[in-house]
Amino acid sequence: MPATTRTTLRRGLAAAAALPLLIGALASCGYGSDAKNDEKKVAAEGEKLSADTVRLGYFPNLTHATALVGDQEGILQKELGGTKLVPTTFNAGPSEIEALNADSIDIGFIGPSPSINGYVKTKGSNLRIIGGAASGGVKLVVNPAKIKTLDDLKGKKIATPQLGNTQDVAFLNWISEKGWKVDAQSGKGDVSVVRTDNKVTPNAYASGAIDGAWVPEPTASKLVSDGAKVLLDESDLWPDKKFVITNIIVSQKFLTAHPDVVEAFLRGAVKTNEWINANPDKAKASANAKLKDLSGKALGAKVIDAAWPSIQFTNDPLAATLQAQADHAVKAGLLEKPELSGIYDLKPLNKVLKATGQPEVSDAGLGVK
User: Fold this and answer.
1) What's the pTM?
2) Alpha carbon distance 215, 251 (integer Å)
3) Do the Cβ atoms of 170 and 325 come closer than 8 Å?
4) Would you call the peptide bond into 20 cis, given omega within 30 degrees of 0 as the criterion?
5) Within a 10 A sphere around the Cβ of 12, how many other Cβ atoms?
């Protein structure tokens, strides 16, 4: 028997052996209406998909609830059929981009600034943005005993999650617009920008090591539950109060090799956002259950109830705001003026949206030609 035939046979037998377990998991997750119909659909989709696995990266943040809920409820896995979803979590965007560049993940949920940096550093050769996921969900929270107005931030220590991540760029831009000076790399200047892992930011705040933070949810509301005060919601700085906080990206290699898997994943993301928006209370509980699974501890009701309403879940990548955030990074000195033409490939997403009767979304002139 030729080697290629033996390989194909082994793969077929492995897929057949794994299928009953996958079907049982999907039936038990409660997503969908009929186990027998699910069985037929999974079998059919399993035959169509071209990859054995898809490796997904996302953050344990509520701004990544599309990933949290889609994973927790099995919606993403159901659309992927016989292709196994293998998730990995990250603290912030730069480390996830490193994983994408190292071929450790295939698809990721990530903020705009790391998307831009990743695209520029590889001269447009490695990633594409293929969809949106969320807008909003970022706040400046401070110690009210030390900071009562925005002007009081001068001379204080304010945390962001990581050098060059989306919140870091937004805060540096805000500082610049105030006319204050900060060295972007060191974080030293009129305000001390302290790059701190979201997981330890609450402890840093409690110890007095920082006076506040410009952070995504749920970190912002965790700080508020510890006595901090919301001084600014970033959405108030944007037209229509909308700005992209979470994109879906893919490696171009994976997109080229497995367009069927990418389309299936996007169907899952679209269905997840639809379910989140139709069932906000259930979705909030689902996201919290996944956070507990990832960290060992669920968010308290006080935290998640305050955080959830500030996030909008959308398939639209809000591409015009990505260009604005690139301009902010340039102004902060973290990036030379980038050429972003081709950073988006929204054809698979628009195909999915059209099939469900939803309007197509725009790449703001930054799509592949």
Assistant:
1) 0.82
2) 27
3) yes
4) no
5) 11
